[in-house]
Amino acid sequence: MAITELLDMNQAWAKKVAEEQPELFSTLAKQQAPKYLWIGCSDSRVPANEIVGLLPGELFVHRNVANLVKHVDFNCQSVIQYAVDVLKVEHIIVCGHYGCGGIKVAMENTNAGISDYWLRSVKDIFLRHRNELQELDDEKACLSRMCEINVAEQVANLAHTKIVQTAWQKNQPLQIHGWIYGLHDGVIKDLNVSRQGLEDADDIYQVEI
Ligand code: CO
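^ thats the input. predicted complex w/ cobalt (II) ion below
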């Protein structure tokens, strides 16, 4: 497909949306008020808005390889801060997906170039859960479980951020959820690792405000 066809498709899309919801663009031009922050993988097969059926303006989104939340990643932290402090989102969703290439590479000894630096923390997670993972003799099952574990670990990282801790100390309603998406069927599974308050994180991560 030629690159100009994308612009043609955009014209068609904008026209269709304007016909179906005449107020949408004029409302969104004034402000955004999403209730959800989505932290997902960059994988092209996991488009955030589409898989949960949300329109422009309804989902604040951050995506990176393997949906990682790192405390020294000012890109991700800035997104979280804006979403929590300014937009006052009520839910943060970390959504991983089965068959994640980033997780797979991290579980191997492949030289993935620059990505090795990014994915190094996933190797650490693998090591911490090695006993459980080694009980799964099937390679695919092992990757699937590791994709789930990674989401749970990122939910924990999120709960430990200064931004989330501060919001909870101020009794700001904020829930964090861990989900995983199936590339094969398009279905999202809730991993039941949600957190919603200070009691869901160890004291050591709490900050004074
Ligand atoms: Co991925």
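The pocket of cobalt (II) ion is lined by residues 41, 43, 66, 97, 100-102 (CB under 6 Å).
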